[in-house]
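Methods: example folding runs. The two proteins below were folded one after another, and each record is reproduced exactly as written to the output file, sequence line first and structure-token line second.
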Amino acid sequence: MKKKTALGQEIDMDSLRLNNEETIAVGNMRVNARGDELGHGGRVVKTRNQVMDEYYKLNTPTITDTPRSEIPKLPLEEDTVPAAKPTVLSTPVINTAPSGIKSDDTELRGRLASTVAKQ
């Protein structure tokens, strides 16, 4: 993967990484650029693969050995919530217009155009 610098020079990042795998990384983690743990004198104590195997061994979810019969059953929502009864109106509701509006008036109140037209 070649990248260009601000001055226009091309740098091959992949070859740069491969050439410097054994270089000690800057910082206080005591690792090289590859990710191997380093000991005294820059010697490899654990390889990157060993470190990752330990990590996955500790942080991978495992299946429990508890039988299904011992797992407590949680109540379902259907069991705890009563069914809602539908409300039925015995007489139909008729929307009546307020006393200040004529029933034959089809336009909405408060419109600028209807106000100008009345004047």
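Second run, written to the same file directly after the first:
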Amino acid sequence: MAEPNAWRRCNTCKAEIPFGGAYFACSVSTCNRRATDFAFCSLSCWDAHVPLFRHRDAWAEERRAPTREAFEEERRRAETEAVERKERARQARAGTPREPPRPGVATGAAAEREILVVASRLKAYVRARSGMNTSDAVLEVLSDRLRALCDQAIDRAGQAGRKTVLDRDF
């Protein structure tokens, strides 16, 4: 890959922003995400961007572009992370142990006792169909039945060689 002559190009006029040079960024969070990450060579270029994206309360933040060495180091790190991600995905497909679960996701015994239905929706359905109230104890019993149905569907998907549970597995 050829060595870049500049860190990036201005998102408005496409002028080069040099390594270590000053540039302007939009203060709005959606303009600073990885997918967008706008950079402008001057205040007038940033100013041209504002009405296009209909910002109500925005300002330009002056920042400094990374040096060539820092940029190359970041690029090497990103490439290494991409290779590691691919390797983890390959291992997951091969059935090797997976990463630990995300925080906030119930696993093990906690998942066995978690309520799986939305109480308000269930109660509204029962009331609309019959005019009856629904006891809170129903949620636990229904969740147990739902777990049993899901376990059967998981087994069927596994027997079919799939890693996705489909509607036909139920």
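Comment on the second run: The first strand starts at residue 8 and ends at 9.
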